[in-house]
Amino acid sequence: MPQAIPDGSVIFPESDYKKPLLKSIFRDERLRNAGLGQEQIKTEYVKLLETYDNAEVGQRIEWQALGRTLVKRSESLTIKLEPKGTGGISRLIAKIAYEFAFLVSGREFLLNQSVAEPIKKLALSGDAQAGVSFMRIDTAVEDYAPVHYIRFQAYDSFTKFVVGFFGSIAYMLIAPPLEHGIFQHIADTSIIGVEYQQDLEKHTLGF
Fold first, then answer.
1. 3-state SS assignment for residue 108
2. What is the pTM of this model?
3. Is 143 helix (H, G, I), strand (E, B) or coil?
4. Angle at CA of residue 12, ends 6 and 18, nearest 5°
């Protein structure tokens, strides 16, 4: 997508600059107020593109008829990304699991130190924790629906968190069983859980 720069200029990706550039020109009130019709704008636009395409890298093209100045950059953007810190995906999953468990059950989750504390330590340090296992799993979402989801399930013998991204990537975190019977106010069964899901196409959230 075109990126606006603080100095007022706009960067257009090299392969897709023509259409958004033409739209911005057509929407320019200054050109309409100056009496330029659409055909005149198109003619000047074609001339500008021809000049730009034949320009050398670094050359500046000022086109007064359209009130535009283009600078020819390299054929591809050179981007260097550096991580802010070290750590694997397990830390992110542990952080999501910890925050979601607290969101669902609040104080009751924090009282379960055998569950809450090792998940917290995993999120902070990334180091393996006793009683906690982490793995990538197959997603349960059919047809790779564009959703993010979190599942928090409390069993008699263990606690399970499943975190999914884009309906195609999923991770599972297994922790010790909860001690204080979280969700007992909801139902008295051996398997209790709650799921959060965000649909990326419909912009909806649900529990």
1. helix
2. 0.54
3. helix
4. 140
